[in-house]
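Usage example:
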Amino acid sequence: MYATSFLLSHYGDRVTVDVVERDATPFGLVRSGVAPDHASTKSVTNRFDGILADARVAFHGNVALGSDVALRDLRARYHAIILAHGADGDKRLGVPGEETMPGVYGAREFVGWYNGDARCAATLGATGRDPVGARIVLGHTACVFGLGNVALDCARMLLRDADDLASTDVAGEALGAGSGVERVVMIGRRGVAQAAFSPKELRELLSLPNVRVRVEPPGHVEGLDEEDAKDLDASRPRRRAREAVAKAAANTAAADATSDRPTKELVIKFLRSPTRFESETGDPDGTPPMSPSTPSVRVTLRANALEGASGSRRAVPDASVAEPEVLRDVSLVLRSVGYKGIRVDEDVPFDDENGVVPNAHGRVLTERGGEIVRGLYAAGWIKRGPTGIIGTNLRCAEETVGALIHDDERGRLREVCEVCEEEEDDDVALSLSEVLRRRGVKVVSKEGWARIDAAEREIGRMAGKPREKFVDLDEMLRVAEGADARAVD
Amino acid sequence: MHGHGKDDPNAETIDVTFIEKDGTETKVKAPIGQSMLEVAHKNDIELEGACEGSLACSTCHVIIEDEKVYDALPEPDDDENDMLDLAFGLTETSRLGCQVIAAKEIDGLRLSLPRATRNFAVDGFVPKPH
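Running the assembly step on the lines above writes:
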């Protein structure tokens, strides 16, 4: 959306922008990624609403690049294309049982579930695994692998009292499931000096009421070596995050001395890697399928030591610790060690190793270090990899649009007529909307999205929430077409 | 939340100069009590405010041109520092525009908006049809 905004402000009336979106709804992770209790972060949707409302902007929702429409369809119709579809995959831990054990999920699935992401609901249903909600009701202990901000979101959503979420746009199903989880164990392979979490989100988690915080291994946060100290010196956020962890651990020690015992527990384990996920019966395939009455996950961890110099410290097995650590009766395991971009269209150059579209300042290249592909650009996570926040994406989009304008001024964009000759496509005179209509794609237009938006707000209003998201795609499409929403029944 | 006499035409004002990304300087009157984010928006200056001044983003990052003026401002609190740490092109005199409130002590304030890298020219550019 920011790229659209920069294009509009530079070109004025000389530009139209068609936004092609896989989901039926716009705004990507602001809708389906940002946690429900971070309402102020979601305020940016007010800004995006304004951009989308502009008469020069069209919206084609529920249109997936690579399946509903191919890059070559778009290349024939536009002077320039900006890929900004984010990073849809997630990195694996590479541990036996990770793919097969019921109860082990990617953080993305969990985040999508509490955010009412229709796609996520469909994916989870298709795999035949337990709904995440069943796992949460089951409760007791949840493990989160990873120490980034997504991992913090997951831990916070598991530990927060349901009452605190009732007035947010959390998915109705997630709110209804509540949380039986009493203990969340966050596990990072490296130490506090290398953790990716940012201090503000960390403090928010550490200061949840009714949650006692324990940090392991004992002495780790205080006893950092020289290389760790250099990592901390290089980064104020990491210094502040470490202070927050140390302070929370100290507060817990103080609280333990009193009778005022919190009811839930957060354990942060540094220098640990998983080696195995098994069902409590010991069967790594986890069969028979889990149900709330069948056993939970047994997680085996190994201890790590750090190797290498500041800035590139690696976790290696710690030979001095012989016994693996075993966590019993874990009801939910979330893998949150990073997202990964995936290729969506065979004609888009792709760097599989890094999960990004190869590019230079947003200009797409044929391969890493290769030639520039005329008129094709990338912005956001598919350009840089899945890190950074809204502000980072703002600057990223500005750079990409700057490159596009620079190229345009030098006649380096594709000419539409040139493309026509090249493609020899009879349909090329048809608009994108017409092509999609002929293919039977149920496109959600701006008006359709406005109907979904209004219905969600209305249903939410009755429940005292900013909105209640539709999680069923078919229902959303019916509302978009103007069918009666539940709100007006 | 911010300030008194927000829309009062008789409110006392100070002079503020915004230096935009292309170097253009715009001098405006900022009513006492208003944040620089609000002042920028009222004067059509392109300062982003994604979280609408709720200290949940870093998009209204501004750079205070004069160190003395920077020192005259109340110090940033933890939340603002955390957000500044995530800002693009952080400097020693960076602040969030939503947290800089017009006051007599900073009359004549000059703010510049940080720019994204403008290194668009790629060496040895050879456009090849793909």
